[in-house]
Amino acid sequence: PETTGILGSSMGALISLYAFLTRPDVFGFVGAMSPALWFADAAILETARAAQLDGTGRIYLDIGTEEGAEHVGHVHTLHQFLLEKGYR
Question: What are phi and psi of 64, to 5 degrees?
């Protein structure tokens, strides 16, 4: 994981986040640009909340404000879950 990362945008960012959240033994860093967190009724948020992570690894997460309030809100929720897990 120290040398293996995954990055994507939109749906690619969604699957990249899923890989990082569920396989921290493989992926040590993730880039998620404008992730499609809305997909499947924002199920990835529950995956993130329940993920057994300890704040190690690196995460790049972004979204533009023009994406809309709902999408930006999902990213803020994900950000909060990650802060609770020790990410800064």
Answer: -90, 150
